[in-house]
Amino acid sequence: xxxxxxxxxxxxxxxxxxxxxxxxxxxxxxxxxxxxxxxxxxxxxxxxxxxxxxxxxxxxxxxxxxxxxxxxxxxxxxxxxxxxxxxxxxxxxxxxxxxxxxxxxxxxxxxxxxxxxxxxxxxxxxxxxxxxxxxxxxxxxxxxxxxxxxxxxxxxxxxxxxxxxxxxxxxxxxxxxxxxxxxxxxxxxxxxxxxxxxxxxxxxxxxxxxxxxxxxxxxxxxxxxxxxxxxxxxxxxxxxxxxxxxxxxxxxxxxxxxxxxxxxxxxxxxxxxxxxxxxxxxxxxxxxxxxxxxxxxxxxxxxxxxxxxxxxxxxxxxxxxxxxxxxxxxxxxxxxxxxxxxxxxxxxxxxxxxxxxxxxxxxxxxx
Length: 367
Fold this sequence. Notes:
40% of the residues lie in helices and 13% in strands. The protein is an alpha+beta fold. It is globular, with a radius of gyration of 26 Å.
């Protein structure tokens, strides 16, 4: 715990005022609204909600505005607010199979039940700056933009029918799901806690680890079984009513990776799964999450742990950007006493070194 240096309160208050002034920017430029951030910077809002572990677009937009666009600071603000909220219980597991799909693609099969739905994506853009956007250009309305109401079976079920992929794990009805926000992290961690950790993890960190696994650090050769993006209904079991009550719909992205597995003495060769789930349209995050999830299953599948992405403690202990930024940025705070202690020790060691070096020189002079 750091205590402000005596007499520094006024400087801190002025620093806060200056921060607010810089946040507002040029007064001749209209102030950005929360609705503008939510609607036009939606992918940033989705990331803040996912890594902040709170589904609220308005609060995420407020955090982005308050943080001047610093995503990790915005995630920190959302996490801090989340910690003040009362907990009423846990919802029922969402059924992504019943998702109202806005985008659904697979790189494993060309023709899939329900069809490929490209939806909104950067995948086929030219990555050239569009000067029309600077002029307030209004794009044409898409010809079709409604979510599909039809049930879309998962692509991995096609492989599952032939026994070519491991079964999807089914949770026991009375099993207790861990909660890393209420209990300290310990190792080894079950997959439910690992997935919670990965969902809150920094996207860039997961992206780097996922990329490393593709390059051979973990021998992970993946195929995108399916990515789906759309709305799912959330239900809460009302004890008084005796049945689940719909609370509303949230937007999710789900990714299932299909990975090779050579088998073992007791298991036949088959495909294995990597899984990712995040709020909003978060495809890069869920793909990275699925890659790392599969890598972290190395011990479970009898594989040798040789790469960082396979090391459970390394991944889970360093993935949280709120913890990481706090530990890194605390170096900006006063360390005067610590440094003076190190400085005194260094001077003492250098003096002893110099005195020890003089002894051979004196002996040579005497000879």
